[in-house]
Design a protein that fits this description.
By secondary structure, the protein is mainly β. Helices cover 13% and strands 33% of the residues. It has one domain.
Amino acid sequence: MKLGALVLAALLLPLPVLGQTRQFKNGEAVTLEPDKAYFLARTSEYKGGALRGTVQIVPVLARLLTEGEMRQAAELRESDPAHWKEKVPPNVAEMLARAPYAQANGESVLLTAVTPGTYILIGVALTNWVSTDEGQLVNSLCLGTVKVEAKPGVITDLGEILAARSDEPTTIPELAGLVGKKNPGFGIFPYEVAIRPVSSSTLLPASLAALPRVPADYRAMPAYPNYSGANINRLAPLPGVLAYDKDGEVLDLKAQDAKAESPHAP
């Protein structure tokens, strides 16, 4: 399938759509099902001013549809243009910060069951501006982000999903050089987003330590149209995975390394 079709497939359905996700709450017992995949991530609260209150960061991911799902969607769109999206299984997953599996040291540990497949980190949502758990998408990483495979029966550890307002300074090292810009004006303020991959120092609840768990094998995702309609932005560079050239185009560092190591590379 061509990249353009894959990108269209990734964001085929409206946000938020949570029909095929399950959030594990408050340290409940976790049994991994063989037909489900699992994402583990950590986020932190962002304390704003009096009007904003405490913001909870919600990672939002979208699964790339298979060719079969694409055909099904196309047929439904043809036969029932007014209601076809209601009949297609959802492909968007939000890791709900209001339903943490555990909390410690100012971090929320989020554990979500999803349909296996390849997922794009499409942005972050905030939970303090709406009454529902899902939150409001405030950042579209359509100018550059990462994708990751979620395999069945395994927890894919995303590490830490970091976010900070674009117009304010931050103590987050991965974002310090990207924020503190001039006030962008009225409306929803954009956020900068970064990933801190899992390491030996990453917070891990003891109850999950014995379960099958693998670090996310992130790959660079090229730019795609802003289907979500949120503030346009890009994921902060991720060492060894994602960078940008002088024109802002995505550089797939893993693909470059593989090409350099290949004996048949020109």
